[in-house]
Amino acid sequence: MVYDLSLLDKCPTEANKSGAHALANAVATAQAAEKAGFRRYWVAEHHHSNDFASSAPEVLVAYLLASTRHIRIGSGGVMLQHYSPYKVAEIFNVLSSLAPDRVDLGVGKTPGGLPHTTKALQSEMHDETRMNFEEKVELLNQFLGGEEVKAGRFEGLAATPRSETKARGFLLGASVESAKLAAHLGWQLSYAGHLNGSDKKLKNTVSAYRKATGGGVPLLALAAIIGRSDKEAKERADQIFIYKIHFSDGKTYSLLTEEAAQEFGALSGRHDFTIEKHHTQIIAGTAETVNKTLHDLHNQYGIREFMLELPATSVEERIDTIAQLAYAQEKLAA
Q: Which segments cross the bilayer (predicted)?
């Protein structure tokens, strides 16, 4: 086997089904991924959403750890701008103590919801003490494992319990800056190829990460659709779009519908934005075609692990896709 397969699950809610049903589907999907030999299973964070049920990945991670035996379980990711690094470290130190060497902590800097959701999540924060993302992730890294912070305003403070094997850190991003920050932290970069499909950006980021780490390679997150034929899969992929809202200060956010992008702009209280419609970056085809594409990326960039997002909302289809991908990979490696 030349590379591992992993799964990113947004816990989609099927039409006319409850959030509880979606979370039960997540358990079934994680168990299927473990049975198929996938290396890790991550759950996303989305707030105030009727489409996705994973608003508290740290809670779902705990349940999934108890519902599986050996697959690594993690967050993809915790949206750190909303939380105290101290508390996030406490949570993942507890998880790592309960399930040693099975916990991944993926951290991202997007809001995971619309501006009014962000305001609710950050209602207790104050401007005079607010840290930027880089400062927060640096502090989080110090708290992980339960050791006392050595310096700064939190000197002497520890996020208990102390964990013998602390959660493995992953920085979710798609830029040279993210590559350098991940390397500085001693974390692995998870490149968001499912949101940023530029070949040039991927090449530059992989190169920067390899240089900063002395040979390290990021994990590559991608979206994939499996069909009975390449034509069928590509037709389905062509129906899926992403909407990017660009603000004049250079900040860009990706949303799943034009309505959500318009609402994001309106609720931000700003008028200096534009919205662009893009095809999402999806690998589409039969399981054999998708695995060949992954194999080519492995050879081109040295990628050793792919984190796959499956846009399908049906749990049966996602479980079937997992089985097909694992089988096709075995055939390719034979």
A: none
